[in-house]
Design brief:
alpha/beta; Spore Coat Polysaccharide Biosynthesis Protein SpsA, Chain A; nine-stranded mixed beta sheet; two-stranded antiparallel ribbon; 11 helices; 42% helix
Length: 317
């Protein structure tokens, strides 16, 4: 009889079969009898599903990994929800990007933290770039107050008084410091299923970008902490599913701006979304005016395109 699933890992593939297979290969030595992996191919339509399925069978991973094929691209939230809905019920779930390499001991350390600290609703680890430098996977929430200060550059112009408004949360060593944080990035996010009464589900109003902020905000609202622990680590190559060969740059920018206001509405209400949208328009218009006065034609074009994106993104935040 198979052991009950302790950890269910969701991996979403969109036209990155080589990276997804490399991710699975890094997981293979870390898989225990109570760990399962569900890979969702998000309607890649490029042979990805066939390549991944063949790799799972030929490498002998079928005991712990399986592939699901989505008939349409569900985005990051929808793809993860499909994986989680079709996987075995588990005490913990891990959202893991396809463009990651999991280091030895990472899964074990995460489960140790979650089991020893019941107040922690989700955790993440040290996230490295390919060159070994550290990515910022632990930030402050982009609250309306922080966004107000940031719209006029105050956290960087006057850091002594407005450093609190820098959502990047600088000033602490992510290589060695374990601490509670507001928001953990979705490239590696290990979640306690009981936070959501046993079923973790992402908000599918987010197609790509912003879903991790909203999910972490929900976890915090339910009274749980979010923990960053650098003892565990992964490499995150970053942007693989959204590079220009897979997602046109214009579409990528539009999704980012849309997610910016959707996060505000979901987490802090419609008034917050309206306010941040108005601030973005005001600050960008001021920048455009200055660029025009200075005769900076390239900058004017850039800001004009940005204002167009902001206007479109704010129609239904």
């Amino acid at each position: 009889m198979a052991a009950p699933t302790r950890l269910l890992i969701a991996v979403i593939n969109y036209r990155t079969p080589e990276l997804t297979i490399a991710c699975l290969a890094s997981l293979a030595p870390e898989i225990a009898a109570d760990v399962r992996v569900v890979v969702v191919d998000n309607a890649s339509e490029d042979g990805s599903a066939e390549q991944i399925d063949a790799a799972i069978r030929s490498a002998g991973w079928s005991a712990w990994a399986r592939l699901l094929r989505s008939e349409r691209n569900l985005g990051f939230s929808g793809g993860n929800n499909l994986a989680l809905a079709n996987g075995e019920p588990a005490e913990f779930v891990l959202l893991l990007n396809s463009d990651t390499v999991v280091h030895a001991g990472c899964l074990r350390r995460c489960l140790e933290v979650l089991e020893s600290e019941p107040g922690v609703g989700a955790m993440s680890c040290r996230v490295l770039n390919a060159d070994g430098s550290i990515q910022n996977g632990a930030r402050r929430f982009p609250t309306p107050l922080r966004m107000t200060a940031a719209a006029f550059g105050l956290p960087w112009k006057l850091p002594r008084w407005f450093g609190w408004a820098d959502a990047e949360d600088p000033g602490w060593d992510r290589a060695s410091t374990a601490r509670d944080v507001d928001w953990l990035g979705g490239a590696f996010l290990c979640i306690r299923s009981s936070v959501f009464a046993g079923r973790v589900r992402l908000d599918e109003d987010f197609f790509f970008y912003g879903e991790d902020i909203e999910l972490c905000h929900r976890i915090r609202r339910r009274g749980f902490r979010l923990r960053y622990d650098p003892v565990a680590s992964i490499v995150h190559l970053g942007g693989a599913s959204s590079d220009p060969t897979r997602m046109p740059s214009g579409q990528q920018a539009a999704r980012k701006w849309h997610a910016r206001y959707l996060v505000q509405r979901k987490c802090w209400g419609r008034a917050a979304a309206w306010w941040v949208h108005a601030l973005d328009l005001l600050s960008s218009t001021l920048e455009l005016t200055l660029a025009a006065l200075r005769g900076q034609q390239a900058r004017r074009a850039e800001l004009g395109a940005r204002i167009g994106l902001i206007l479109r993104a704010g129609r239904a935040p």
